[in-house]
Design a protein that fits this description.
Elements: E1 8-11, E2 14-18, H1 22-35, E3 54-60, E4 66-75, E5 90-91, E6 102-110, H2 117-133, E7 138-146, H3 154-163, E8 173-174, E9 179-181, H4 192-197, H5 201-208, E10 212-220, E11 225-233, H6 239-248
Parallel strand pairs: 6-7
Antiparallel strand pairs: 1-2, 2-3, 3-4, 4-6, 5-8, 7-11, 9-10, 10-11
Length: about 250
């Protein structure tokens, strides 16, 4: 499923590379464990999808500290999309007909002690390199909202539903038993400020690139989060933002 990949970027005070050994992978899994507040006894956030993914890590050059990471599953064809992490929560049958290579981005996180937006920019530069290298047509994944109570996110969900709904031909269908359907949320004026404030940074970035979302969120009690399926069609990213991502890479 996952294709061959090389990655080594020097971005000033940060470097971006692949985790190619067990020690580096476990460092990334520890960072994920802290970021996603897991309670695993071994302090590692890991699952069966790790073996199917490339793991990208961001290090601070001076301290050699790992300050960010994400994993990416690259498939030559969208026909394999039902084997992805997101397919646990969503019926992605409609996306199997999407043309060309696809990639699933997951577990993107930044060390909470860093506080430097350039870490996230470095991660995106690594992702842009991967997208270009493999000529990815569709980038997708699950954006995560903290907690399992959807009420604080009603404005955000309604904003996504009205402005960023998936094309009908590719829309994910309901698969999980515990979901929040945006169309069922109470009508009324949306508070844009509240909506954007409660929207995760990753999801805001997707939306700025012209991304679209599922019509429902999935409640995940194990991860203590709400998942929102999100996708970006690479050829539909605004040209100015494409140039910015490629310049970083």
């Amino acid at each position: 499923m996952n294709l061959e990949l090389e990655l080594e970027l020097d971005l000033g005070q940060y470097s971006v590379s692949l985790a190619t050994d067990v020690h580096t992978l476990q460092q990334a899994q520890r960072l994920r464990h802290r970021a996603f507040r897991r309670n695993n006894a071994d302090g590692l956030d890991r699952d069966r999808f790790d073996d199917l993914c490339h793991h990208v890590v961001v290090h601070h050059r001076d301290s050699a500290q790992m300050v960010g990471c994400f994993r990416v599953m690259i498939s030559a064809s969208a026909a394999e999309i039902t084997q992805s992490y997101s397919a646990q929560y969503y019926d992605l049958t409609n996306l199997r007909k999407y043309a060309g290579p696809v990639a699933e981005l997951g577990r993107l996180c930044v060390d909470s002690g860093t506080g430097d937006i350039d870490v996230l920019r470095a991660a995106w530069a690594g992702l842009a390199h991967i997208v270009d290298h493999h000529r990815i047509n569709l980038l997708f994944g699950c954006a995560s909202f903290q907690g399992t109570d959807p009420r604080p996110y009603h404005d955000c969900f309604r904003l996504l539903h009205h402005n960023h709904a998936a094309p009908a031909a590719f829309a994910p269908r309901i698969k999980s038993p515990d979901v929040v359907e945006y169309a069922t949320l109470s009508a009324g004026k949306i508070d844009p400020k509240r909506a954007l404030t409660s929207m995760p940074a990753l999801l805001r970035t997707y939306m700025l690139m012209g991304g679209w979302v599922s019509d429902h969120a999935v409640i995940d009690h194990d991860m203590n989060t709400l998942h929102v399926f999100t996708a970006v069609e690479i050829n539909k990213i605004p040209p100015a933002r494409q140039r910015l991502l490629r310049a970083m890479a």
